[in-house]
Amino acid sequence: MKNIRKSIKIYEYLAFIIFAAIALLPLLLSAFYGLKNVSASPIKYIEMIIPSGRKGVLLAKSTGYALAVSSITLMVGGWCGVVLFSVKSNLMRSLRWLVLLTALIPPYIHALAWSDVLNLINKRLGFNISITGWGISILTQSMHFLPVAIIFTMIALKSVRADIIDAGRIFHSEGTVFLKIVLPMILPVMLISSGIIFILSLTDYTIPSLFGINIYSMEIFTQFSAGGNPGDAFIIALPVLIITILIIMGLKGFIKSFLSGVLRSSDMSSTGLKFGSATEYPAALAVMVVIVQIAVPACVITFDTSMWTDLFKTISGSMSEISYSLIISMTAVLVSIPVSLVIANYISEAGLSGKIVMLFNIILFTVPSSLVGISLISLWNSILPDSLYNSLLLPVMSLTARFAPLMVMIISVQSGTIDKTFTEAALLHTSDRLRIFVKTRLNILLPGIIASSVLMFILSMGELGATLLVMPPGASTLTVKIYNYLHYGSTEAVKGLCFIVFIVSLFAGYVVISVSGIIRKSKSGGF
Amino acid sequence: MQLFATAAEIRYKVLEETTLKKTLKLLVMVNLLIIVALFTTGCKIKNEVVIYTSVDRNFSEPVLQEFEKETGIKVKPVYDVEAAKTTGLVNKIIAEREKARADVFWNGEIAQTMRLKQEGVLTPYVSSESSELPENFKQPEGYWTAFGGRARVFIVNTDMIKGIDKPDSIYDFLESEYPSKKIAIAKPLFGTTATQAAALYALLGKKDGYDFYKKLHERNVVVLDGNSVVRDYVADGKLMFGLTDTDDALGAVERGKPVEIIYPDQDEGGIGTLVIPNTVALIKDGPNPDNGKIFIDYLLKKDTMKKLIESGWCQVTVRDIEVKSPVPANNIRTMNVEWEQVFENMDTINKDLKEIFVD
Questions:
Q1: Angle at the Cα of A438 (from A434 to A444), degrees rounded to 5?
Q2: Mutating which of A331, A438, A488, A490 best tests the B interface, going by the most B Cβ atoms within 10 A?
Q3: Which of A288, A525, B105, B331 has the fewest C-beta atoms lying within 10 Å of its C-beta?
Q4: What is the pLDDT, as a whole number, of residue A1?
């Protein structure tokens, strides 16, 4: 990336300071406490950094769990994505939209839905399928992340050049063309989605804890609860952080080619992929998997009649949680937009320093949620006065720390589509970069800003690990309430609350699709 | 032409300025709104009380809401979560000792409340509603009051136990009749499971208590992450039976699972079932001490106790209260322990059981 900037402006300093105060400094402080503890008792802490015994087994199991989920979604999601992209029918088109629409449903809704379905199967068919343990947890987590894998696959297919496919078809069958030309081209992007799913499965404990299994990221939370020491929590989290950084390093090359590929418009849709009769049944199976993935949470949540009778009472009894969740999520988005815009703009314009900032940004996105909360408490507990400490501030900061890096990434990718010569031409008329930004880049970035804002909003609504730790007395998010109630199993009240979240997620998905439509129209492309 | 070009340029510049200024004004207004919201939401409401409670939310929330409705005092609750058990909340109270943020601690057990008293973060308050409680349910200086009780029980899967004698003693965990991979306890380092371990140490002596858990471990009895996990595994048919709390077990019964609740050690000469009382305590230098006292009085009322029993949270009442419990505990033989002795054993069992089950 050619560095077309001469200096950092004051608003950029401000954005970096805010971002650092919220996301980076708390983590660094926990790291500092951790290092202090290590230097005081090196042997004890080296055993913590290199987990052995029970913790070692737990880390291995958690890594295996994440690997299982990412492998399943890679294979199943990849195949489903290929089928949805290739088959030209109204049903497929509808399914594509439904996949996008339901991609943002929080994980606990999948947990509730799948445990209800398996309970029903056991009752009606006399089976004895376990509704606790690793099996159902892997199934549910895979179903939760399946849309991510499908969407990434379709994005990858979108960027494959049609002329290459056509050239291949002259000499080879469709199957060979797919295996030898298309698959190698889309595999890097599929591996990126698999890597993201691996990291998220390793660092989030929501679904496993609901099915009674312990994974390593839960240890960070329980360690802090047991000892109250953020340094110890950081040391416990270190193995997970190292694994996620290694994954990111391994995918670095693929990320680069993904960014350049996704920006390339393609007319792949005009030539499409064609499959012979041999793939009919596997294709039908893929369609069924997608339908099941969508239908299970939708049906369980909406068709439970007992839930509807008390829905009004459920909603009115949870108004404070609903409004609190909406307020902190929206505030986190509003805070993140200007900060992310400035940082993303910096990343796209600066050379090496921009790459370093992007790397830090990606690492911050992968920090386990409980460590985010713990780090914020350790930094701000004694500094802030009560009126601020007990306000929305810490929950908003936790959501910003968790998801602003994602917004930065999305906007950076879109910034990369803007021709740099626009900026260089504008620089001939004025040296005011803020004016240049507002007049030349903001309009183009607006759809990406809206899409990433909606995505951040819905992820914030479903966030658990960090907000659980930083919520002030008397405040609770809807997700925390649902999570607490879910430990007692599925009830009408829980389903009612999940229904609210389900509707909000669908609406958010609809907004993202509409914005994507605007972006597509401007580029004259489409799925 | 030159004049028009200049006018157009000026108009263009003015519009540019206006758009830029509008954008900046909008950004500043939004951020000011955010800052105002942040400051105002943290401000203290005049009539409020902050309750930290380890009692499961679906049982404690209705009581807090009822209190708010009756008294008009705004309740700000902080609930425990399954993952942290009670320890997280207790550590939070201790960490906040320089600037207490809680007024009252309502605990679903007793040992951690005694730990708070030892740490010096409680202040004495003797409620008028505690007069009918037995003396051993009241800390002599008034630092905490115990009430109600949950029992440590077996949850048994009736389908899996067919053809075998149902367990009736905790020593059945050591019997070869029951396959070790089909019976479970929760990890005895947290919550009521830890309290039970300390009670066994107090009752049997440190050596016998240690030996019991050592044998459990050597038998490879399944150790799960919490009482609700034990319940789910038994209800799910993965285990024959496990040790859990009555409220957890009741959840499975109410969901129609094929399970039964059994009070262990009820035979003549048996050690009895451990009944762990709830406790409530006033936090030292809390922000709303008077409202805290009002809440403690409310919690200790017989009516409130009746509601807690009817909901299934408590099963044992040591006062004369007419109530129908979903898990009847009339005339059960209870384990006869001194809670001070139980508390004294907490550090020992933490060390011993960590050595057995963790390291």
A1: 135
A2: A488
A3: B331
A4: 41
Residue A181: band (very low, low, confident or very high) from pLDDT cuts 50, 70, 90: confident
Q: How far apart are CA B17 and CA A522, in angstroms?
A: 27
* d(C-alpha A167, C-alpha A149), whole Å: 28
Query: Which residue has tokens 């790291």?
Result: A31
Q: Is A10 on the interface with B (CB under 8 A)?
A: no
Task: Taking residues B31-56, report their average pLDDT.
Answer: 76
Token output for B186: 């929760």
Q: Give the largest Cα separation in chain B, rounded.
A: 113
Asked if B74's CB is within 8 angstroms of A474's CB, the reply is yes
Q: What is the pLDDT of residues A1-37, one digit of tens each?
A: 444 455 557 778 888 888 888 888 888 888 888 888 8
Would you call A271 an interface residue with chain B, using a CB distance cutoff of 8 Å? no
**Number of helices (H), then strands (E), in chain B:** 12, 10
Taking the CA atoms of B33, B36, B39 and B43 in sequence, report the sign of the dihedral they define.
Answer: negative
ipTM at complex level: 0.72
Summarize pLDDT for A74-102 with one digit per residue, the tens.
999 998 888 888 877 777 777 777 887 77
Round the average pLDDT of chain A to a whole number and report it: 81
In chain B, which residues have their Cβ closer than 8 Å to the Cβ of A440?
A: none
- What is the structure's pLDDT at A2? 45
CA A484 to chain centre: 23
Contact status, residue B256 vs residue B318, Cβ threshold 8 Å: no
Rounded Cα distance, B139 and B143, in Å: 6
Lowest mean pLDDT among A180-194, B13-27, B223-237: B13-27
Q: Which residues from B are below 8 Å from A212, CB to CB? A: 224-225, 228-229, 232-233
* Per-position b or e across B217-230, b if 16+ CB within 10 A of its CB: eebebbbbbbbbbb
Inter-residue contact B244 to B257 (CB < 8 Å): no
Residue A192 CA to chain centroid, in angstroms?
Answer: 12
CB contact under 8 A, A488 and B56: yes
Task: Give the gap in angstroms from C-alpha B67 to the nearest C-alpha of chain A.
Answer: 14
